[in-house]
Amino acid sequence: MAAVILRCDAEVLRRWNYRAVVEQVAGSGIFLDRWRADSCPGVDPGSEAWLVVEGSTEASSGLIGHGFVTSQPYRIAAPADPGPAHWFFWVAWDSLLPLGEQVRPGLLGEALTDDLASRADGPSLVTLPPSSVPVLRRLWRAHAPSTADPLEVAGGTFPPETLRTVRVNRYERDPDGRRACIAFHGTQCAACGFSFESAYGVAGVGAIDVHHLVPPEILDGAYQLDPIADLVPLCHNCHAMAHTATPPLTVGELRSIMSAAGHLKGEVVTEVALQAQEDARRILDGGRM
């Protein structure tokens, strides 16, 4: 998956009402913005994005945000503009530093190659080579706002003997994977369609589990997580039900169970879908198709 640096000037932050946007991201975990490019950008939904602001001084410049591309690029021609049409794509910013706390250009330059550092001061979009992505992630983690993992269990008042452990593998707890999964798939449960935001309003924004589709017991040491293909959003109920079996129930199996129980009104699980789920089950169980 591609990763990019998106460069902007202070005017973009003023247009956002940046202080309010930082508070919004801290509270809800996301800020959606449409990004403009002069030519067709080589980005896809799920591409990781870092925001670099170019100020009038070094103190007002630097790496200030992180997010994910959430749409394919599309082209729009302005009615009053005789020039070429601009390209646009949507970005979900999930972490933003307050003005004055950005990673300064000097540190950013040390993390990137000389060529990338110079390009990051030029075009509004710079595609990062795979080798630079882990370096930039480490730099961002060292300076990014600290946030609580939404999957962490809050302390309660029940005595230890009354607690039951729900096993969640480490890929489901990876914060970067979670953000990429939600940026691409959204926060609606892939099995039952439940949306915490629709049900609870602002209080439910971003409240969703992510489920790892590949059972950890069949993974080897060379496995690398693809958050778009390997993770899927599930509500707490469907996630708990998925983990009642070993290997976990697939999304299709969950939907089949709910459909048989009459809880997916208007939904029909076709024979083709059922056959695909059966084939997947045989593969997971070590059988042959």
UniProtKB/TrEMBL annotation:
GO terms for molecular function: hydrolase activity. It is an enzyme of class 3 (hydrolase). This is 5-methylcytosine-specific restriction protein A. Keywords: Hydrolase. The keyword Hydrolase applies. Its EC number is 3.1.21.-.
